[in-house]
Design brief:
The protein is α/β, with parallel strands linked by helices. About 35% of the residues lie in helices and about 20% in strands. β4, α5 and β5 form a beta-alpha-beta unit. α1 crosses α11, α4 packs parallel to α5 and α9 packs across α12. Bound molecules: 1,4-dihydronicotinamide adenine dinucleotide (NAI).
């Protein structure tokens, strides 16, 4: 159980690019990174508007001299300080992830970057190469994967409880953008503009989350080929989709589907991952993240609860408050952040093998998300055809 003990030697001096006042995800990053004292916020280029960014940094308690007008100035100034930041989080719109992460790595910083990591696989592989060459960690903010019951699902697959995996169904289909809300919402406006969002909207913005969760639960499944169709039900969003369906075939013979949507009118998140094996199935739903449904053929369905002693030990490792009390998104993100910190310290100690068994969404997961989106877009734009995955 996590009880507030920090497992690293010191808090990592940390900065942020983006995540400024009023941003959607900035607060979640700060809450997760600061929760257990693994990171210490020292600097920021929080906002496109330098004045607003500076005011916000001061409001957060930062030294005004370390609230920078832009990320380039921040990386240069912090590199020159003996007490400069060691890690930076990139929480800006998608089009900036590649240049900012690249600049950070070249400045010798570890990075925690938002998803999708980049627009293209070539860019993501470039970041992977730079990080590997310099011994730096890149974490990717697939925050839901820090929920403890995902670990339990992975263990139930690994220990054979479900039998041979046959079917994976993924869904992240909310209804918040059923109408053209982007007229009044800047954070939605950039999401439906290819110049800022990249080659996709919901595929990259939403579907990469359950895609990564499925990779955690079923690490042995490799996609062999996929077929995607995508639609812009709010026509002004074309060419970006607000709804998409993907069929996948894995090289084990298993099959998968993914439905992702921002126009699932009436739905909240509806992010669900269901894995079906020859003996039974598990299903996780992000609106009830403390539960995992386990169904064994011929037996009554069971609802497993977070924190209970019948779970696998690995699924109890991140428990903070015992069973019964609900844990949520902030805790899931904090679970990833302590692993990011452990990975960063191991790399700085020159002992990356220390964290070889530690599960967290790193650069490989970031590359994979971008690669998947690229294949989906290629399939959809060719008329919904099967494309080999490579
Ligand atoms: P937002 O539009 O609400 O906020 C973006 C923030 O970045 C603003 O404060 C803006 O001023 C700042 N910014 C933009 N360009 C900048 C630059 N060059 N330098 C410094 N600051 C800059 O966007 P939101 O919704 O917070 O999304 C940001 C990223 O987080 C996106 O990539 C999005 O896909 C991702 N996201 C991830 C979630 C997750 O669950 N992992 C959930 C929500 C968003």
């Amino acid at each position: 159980m996590i009880n507030g003990t920090r497992l690293t030697k010191s808090a990592i001096r940390w900065g942020m690019v983006g995540g400024g006042k009023g941003s959607q995800i900035g607060y979640v990053h700060r809450s997760a990174a600061l929760r257990d004292g693994y990171f210490d916020l020292k600097a920021g280029a929080f906002d496109l508007d330098p004045g607003r960014g500076r005011d916000f940094g001061v409001e957060l308690g930062l030294d005004p001299d370390r609230c920078y007008r832009d990320y380039g100035t921040m990386f240069a100034a912090e590199s020159a300080r003996s007490d400069g930041i060691r890690c930076v989080t990139v929480a800006t719109p998608n089009n900036t992830h590649y240049p900012i992460t690249r600049a950070a790595l070249l400045a010798g910083l570890h990075v925690i970057c938002e998803k999708p990591l980049t627009f293209t696989t070539a860019e993501a592989l470039d970041l992977q190469a730079i990080a590997a060459e310099r011994g730096l960690v890149v974490g990717v903010a697939y925050g839901y994967s820090g929920h403890q019951m995902i670990e339990e699902a992975a263990r139930l697959v690994a220990d054979g409880t479900l039998g041979r995996i046959r079917i994976v169904t993924l869904q992240f289909a909310h209804g918040f953008h059923s109408q053209a809300v982007e007229g009044d919402s800047p954070a939605t406006r950039w999401r439906v503009d290819p110049a800022f969002a990249g080659p996709s909207y919901v595929l990259g913005d939403l579907a990469t989350h359950p895609l990564y969760i499925a990779q955690v639960i079923c690490p042995d499944l490799r996609i062999r080929r996929l077929l995607c169709t995508r639609q812009s039900f709010v026509a002004s969003r074309a060419p970006l989709e607000d709804n998409a369906t993907v069929l996948m075939e894995y090289d084990t013979g298993a099959v998968g589907t993914c439905w992702t949507s921002a126009v699932n009118a009436g739905a909240m998140h509806s992010q669900k991952v269901r894995v079906v094996g020859s003996r039974g199935s598990v299903e996780w739903w992000d609106e009830h993240p403390n539960q995992l449904r386990l169904e064994i053929q011929g037996e009554p369905a069971r609802l497993l609860d977070r924190g209970m002693p019948y779970l696998h030990p690995q699924a109890l490792a991140d428990d903070r408050i015992g069973a019964g009390h609900p844990e949520g998104l902030f805790d899931a993100w904090a679970n990833l952040h302590y692993r990011f910190a452990l990975a960063i310290e191991a790399h700085e100690d020159g002992e990356p093998s220390r964290v070889s068994g530690l599960r967290f969404p790193g650069i490989a997961a970031g590359v994979e998300g971008v690669r998947w989106v690229e294949h989906c877009v290629r399939s959809a734009d060719a008329g919904g055809v099967w494309v080999d995955y490579g």
